[in-house]
TrEMBL record:
Cellular-component GO terms for this entry: cytoplasm
Protein name: Arrestin C-terminal-like domain-containing protein
Lineage, opening ranks: Eukaryota, Metazoa, Spiralia, Lophotrochozoa, Mollusca
Pfam families: Arrestin_C (PF02752)
GO terms under biological process: protein transport
Organism per entry: Pinctada imbricata (Atlantic pearl-oyster)
Length: 143
């Protein structure tokens, strides 16, 4: 069964890897000089790592605002990371390729991300075979 095809990139060669789920978690502490608030923690999970333009990425997870202040906007982003590689240096650019705004989150409150969706826009594929000067990757992020 063919999962996807983009130009000469044959996704069947990577189907086992692309079908694996991916998850990550992180935290951020808001500081104002000597006064640090409770951390804002997040956990995000996608059901697989391989998507093509036009597909929807279902995102699950949660965000816990342990700070006393309200977060004005919680967003889920699809980030495109492009590395330009030369013999002398590497430059990395991050671009928000897509986002879904989820609203605000009050202080000391949780938010579930169950069923959050990101539509994959037209984008170049990751893993450009035969290209050793540009490396493109994508990841989901909560901010």
């Amino acid at each position: 069964m063919e999962c996807c095809r983009h130009g000469q990139l044959q996704c069947n060669a990577f189907s086992n890897f692309l079908q694996k789920p991916s998850e990550n978690e992180g935290h951020k502490t808001i500081c104002c000089l000597c006064c640090a608030s409770g951390p804002i923690t997040g956990h995000i999970k996608v059901e697989r790592m391989g998507y093509v333009p036009g597909q929807v990425i279902p995102v699950d997870g949660d965000v816990m605002n342990n700070a006393n202040k309200t977060m004005k906007e919680v967003k889920v982003h699809l980030i495109q990371e492009v590395r330009y590689i030369t013999q002398s240096k590497t430059k990395v650019c991050h671009v928000r390729a897509a986002e879904n705004m989820l609203g605000q989150l009050g202080g000391n409150k949780p938010m579930l991300l169950h069923g959050t969706r990101i539509l994959v826009p037209p984008l170049p594929p990751s893993g450009l075979l035969g290209c050793n000067i540009i490396d493109i990757n994508y990841y989901a992020e909560v901010s």
